[in-house]
Amino acid sequence: MAPIFRATQLSRLYQMGEVTVPALVDATFDIPSGELVVILGPSGSGKSTLLNVLGGLDQATSGHCYYRGKDLALFSEKELTLYRRDSVGFIFQFYNLLPALTVWENVEMGASLVKEPLPIDEVLERVGLAERAHHFPAQLSGGEQQRVAIARAAAKNPDVLLCDEPTGALDLVIGRKVLDFLQKINQEQGKTVFIITHNGAIAKMAHRVLVMGSGRIVENRVNAQPCAAEEVTW
Ligand SMILES: Nc1ncnc2c1ncn2[C@@H]1O[C@H](COP(=O)(O)OP(=O)(O)OP(=O)(O)O)[C@@H](O)[C@H]1O
């Protein structure tokens, strides 16, 4: 089967005056559709840069990134907007919820962008927040707020979920619940999920682990037996 993503010598350099910062250097890999991929690496190693290029938030300076065989670099502005809207969902460490909207309304914001969203009540049920639908973000714990952010991205029903440190601000018990939900979306709905983390323990639940160092992919390993999110511990 053709990969959902193919990167060939993908690089993103930032020019800072006379200094060139090589944020992403020569990344080359294939990701089959339906994988749960963990991106590991120290601070500054290029993890977010890679995720942003995959999600069409940033453009590579050289090399190619193909999504279902189509080169993102050749997308028009309109095609990129549609790609970001319909095909990918982003989840960040600091939830980015709108404080004046209820949980239900925050999730509805994601769903309203696309033609074929998932029913909001169903998504809230799945993240275990059906009872909190009419509460505001400030009335929720960090883990609950993160689950609202995931529900908002999932309600768009995208092919790909791109998660940048989704458990970075959470303790073990709550973090595991969030990971469990991401794993369910991957296993039950066949979505391709990328999770950036500093936490090596989370790599155990991945189908594939990309390890980054100084902008390069220093290891690309397949995990024959990913564990359940419930077994992850740190
Ligand atoms: N907009 C930018 N302008 C200049 N340099 C940047 C920019 N964004 C990232 N960089 C640099 O590129 C490198 C990779 O950054 P990136 O955020 O991708 O790393 P990361 O692995 O996600 O780090 P962290 O784990 O701390 O979030 C770093 O040296 C960073 O300073």
UniProtKB/TrEMBL annotation:
The keyword ATP-binding belongs to this UniProt entry's keyword annotation: yes
Superkingdom, taxonomy of origin: Bacteria
InterPro entries: AAA+_ATPase, ABC_transporter-like_ATP-bd, ABC_transporter-like_CS, MacB-like_ATP-bd, P-loop_NTPase
One GO cellular component, as annotated: membrane protein complex
UniProt keyword terms in alphabetical order: ATP-binding, Nucleotide-binding, Transport
CDD domains noted in UniProt: ABC_MJ0796_LolCDE_FtsE
Keyword DNA-binding: no
Transmembrane regions: none
Stated name of the protein: ABC transporter family protein
